[in-house]
Specification:
- With about 60 residues, the chain is an all-alpha fold.
- The protein has one domain.
- It is built from 3 helices and no strands.
- The chain is rod-shaped, with a radius of gyration of 22 Å.
- It starts with a helix and ends with a helix.
């Protein structure tokens, strides 16, 4: 959907509905930010857990 079309649709809404759209956009942005933070934290922890996860004793679990 084109941005111009979306803007026109939002402008045609009553103010209370436009406020709901704004709240929903804020929710989507917040959820996206949380996902990015979770992924970044997981990536940063990979090196710390590498010794724990990558060892001969646990190799059998890699085959599951």
């Amino acid at each position: 959907m084109a941005v111009d079309t979306l803007i026109e649709k939002i402008r045609s809404l009553p103010p209370e509905k436009a406020a709901e759209v704004e709240d929903f956009v804020d929710f989507l942005r917040q959820r996206s930010e949380k996902n990015r933070l979770s992924q970044a934290a997981a990536k940063l922890s990979e090196e710390a857990f590498a010794e724990v996860w990558d060892n001969p004793e646990d190799a059998v679990y890699d085959e599951l």
